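Deliverable D5.2: sample structural annotation.
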Amino acid sequence: MILAGQAEVAVGKIYHFRDDYPITWAEYLNTVGGWINKAPKGGLSFGLAWFLGSTCERLLTPLGIRPPMTRLAAAIMGLDNSVDSSQARRELGWESSVSQVEAMRRIQAWVETSYR
């Protein structure tokens, strides 16, 4: 955001920023879940996850209970939510500031000191 705020070329434009790490949600969740002994088991089709999320929301939200499954969770986990950051790279010179290995090391350090 600082790059966009300081670059004349960015005036009136919208940029997307994301790290281009070659990791899937499944790999990420299995890794992080393994650190806390809660790795995911199995999976659901997107359609079933959406249906369960919708059903949980309709039944539990009016009772003041946080649904264990939501349509938002299904959409985040079950759809490709990638964004194209090539414009930010090309026009602003943006790039990830840490490698995937370093990012995962920092996340693991946080999990080990703060999560438990």
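Annotation notes: The CA atoms of residues 29 and 39 lie 7 Å apart. The helical segments are 2-6, 25-35, 46-60, 71-78, 86-92, 100-115.
The annotation will be released with the project's public dataset once the embargo ends.
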